[in-house]
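A quick word before the example. In earlier lectures we treated sequence and structure as two separate objects. From today on, think of them as two lines of the same record. Here is GDP-mannose 4,6-dehydratase written that way.
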Amino acid sequence: MRTALVTGVAGQDGVYLARSLRAAGTAVVGTVAPGFAAAEPRRVYLAGVELRELDVRDGAALEALVAEVLPDEVYNLAALSSVGRSWEEPELTAATNAAPVERLVAALLRLRAERGHDARLFQASSAEVHGSASDSPYARAKAAADEVVRQARAEHDLFAVCGVLHNHESPLRSPRFVTRKITLSAAEIALGRRDTVSLGNLDVHRDWGFAGEYVEAMRLQLAHDEPLDLPLGTGRVHSLQDLLEQAFAAAGLGEPGDRVVQDAALLRPSDTSVFVADPEPAAAAIGWRAQVGFEALVEHMVAVDLERLRSGVPEAVDYLLPAGIRA
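And the structure line, produced from the sequence above:
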């Protein structure tokens, strides 16, 4: 049985990836933040995953875990993933998003040199690295991590790749992100639990896809014959205004109108107005294209938020996949 080490396994991508790997018969060891309680609702998604508490900023502990687990594949998904928060905590962002990649590469090279064990590394990169707002602490940290991966590949022949991820969402996205903030707010307004939602710039355009599909691309990248960095996205772009309108419609609310309050405090110091992926490299190299459309994604997120509010159940396996998609 192959073994995969997944950092940040309790995050959105970690959950979907771990479940996909387990379904394929791969043993999964996943890191969670210290203090991940036995009663944590997200455990419902991680049956069969061996959970290890680890702060990825603890480089020695990270290297020791790699040596112990002896993984065939490593997926580095642990990150401070909010661009907005990175402006508030730039040092934490660098320590979480960049430095651990150096330690992972060092650990994998040591495994090969000392024990003859070759493992492959997937690094979750971001389209933010290539945008006009690439001076954000988040983008700088991701760019530094990408460079570590490229150097390991070029100088040490390590099978290491970057998946350049465009925006990918699901009901597991934190409400700190504007996409989930919108779907949750639409559900709350529909149920009479709030009246308005405060938002910043609605004119940003993004390539939004379903996270559950993107993890399949990660697996395909590591299974490919040669290590390739690939952009991962749908190739279709929508504005945040489009997402807002779609969410309100899905909640049965009609036009957002005066239910939206513009808040200048929610504007980022800098932002790229348009991000859209070129889907052709991934289609040509690994045969992957996103299938879940924008409307279906937003409708699914709203439907799950409505169910959460009505039932009081924060997490359930039934929440993971849009209608018509099977596990």
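Notice the following. The longest strand covers residues 120-126. We will return to this example when we discuss secondary structure assignment.
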